[in-house]
Amino acid sequence: FQSPEILFDPLLFNIESKLGGIHNLIYKACSACDNKEQKNMYNNIILAGGNTLFSFLPIRLEKMISELVAPNTKIQIKADPERKYSTWLGGAVLASIPSYQQMWISKEMYEEKGPSAVHDKSLI
Length: 124
What we know:
Layout lengths: L21 H10 L3 H8 L2 E2 L10 H10 L10 E2 L7 H11 L10 H7 L3 H5 L3
Helix pairs in contact: 1-3
């Protein structure tokens, strides 16, 4: 029960966070959009990755976000049952793009530069 609470209240675990819980992050991200896009954003919140597999998460997230937005705002949390594979699937899609192969780190490059090789190939 307690471990997922860190997603909603990092202070429970003595983690300083100016941003608050995940519901606040989603609210701030959606609020940063133009007013006409906010409706679209709140209606298309997608959970991805293994850390979203807690059974209560979609319902709790919807409730917490609902408390932050205008009463008539429709919130829809989409939680694909296979979302634990979303990171792998995204990586597989990225790896299949021919133009992305130039971003790969070869064994030789890694042996020459070690972990810092990632900085030479990073997009950011």
